[in-house]
Amino acid sequence: MAVNYQFDAEKREHAGTSVARKIRRDKKIPAVIYGGHADPEMLVLDHNEVEKKLMDEGYYSHILSINIDGQKPQQAIMKTIQRHPSKSRILHMDFMRITAGEKIKVTVPIHFLNEDKCIGVKQSGGSVLHTMNELEIICLPSELPESIDIDVADLDIGGAIHLTQIDLPDNVEIAALTHGDEQDYDQIIVSITPPRVVQDEVDAPEEAGEEGDEES
Fold it and tell me: CA 51, CA 16: separation in Å to the nearest integer?
């Protein structure tokens, strides 16, 4: 069954720090939607509804329907979420409208497959080290993947997978590799580290008088 990823929002007329604080006191979230050859619109969303929906990872990587005051839904992606540094509270959200036929830049989660079957883990006792857990990609809205899947089953100790080694879906680019020479931006995504060696016993220093130190 297909999931309809959507948020209900109200339009707000005023900006500013004091307005944003009042919105948050009312357990709501100030937000903005922009792009798509239209003027930005300031919005208000219900905090409890948003938190509940964001438990579904799909909201971070799907095209969203933003329903504003009962008008025709606007298609957008979630661009940024500002969270409180110490409390479970969302402070602000940015949505970017999409236009059919125009590429978008969006961050999607990385799913690491077969970690329990990884050669370096099963046979050598190593550990899987994730350098990244999400990836910024460029693609058309209609070709936006839910996630990027990376299989680590064949990695041994010291092995790694770089950006250029990812098996991408058709017509999807990695944003970091579009800046210039790929080799300059070819970061490691995941690697297998060797097991930690724990020294259980420390050799005690030799005591004076042993092995030929006796007085004659």
Answer: 23
Pick from 81, 189, 177, 188: nearest CA to 133: 189
Q: For 28-61, how does the pLDDT look when each residue is reduced to its tens digit (9 = 90+)?
A: 999 999 998 899 999 999 999 999 999 998 898 8
Query: Which pair of structure tokens corresponds to residue 147?
Result: 């996630």
Task: Give me Rg for the CA atoms of the chain.
Answer: 26
Q: State how far the Cα of 83 lies from the Cα of 90, in Å rounded to an integer.
A: 4
Query: What's the CA gap between 12 and 15, in Å, rounded?
Result: 8
pLDDT tens-digit readout, 158-186 = 999 999 999 999 999 999 999 877 677 89
Nearest to 30 by CA among 1, 48, 10: 10
Give Cβ neighbours of residue 168 (< 8 Å, ≥ 6 apart): 137, 148, 174
**pLDDT tens readout for residues 180-205:** 776 778 999 999 999 987 655 555 55
Q: Which long-range contacts (CB under 8 A, 24 or more apart) does 161-167 make?
A: 161/188, 161/189, 161/190, 161/191, 162/186, 162/187, 162/188, 162/189, 163/187, 163/189, 166/135
Number of neighbours of residue 190 by Cβ within 10 angstroms = 21
Structure tokens at 205: 């220093």
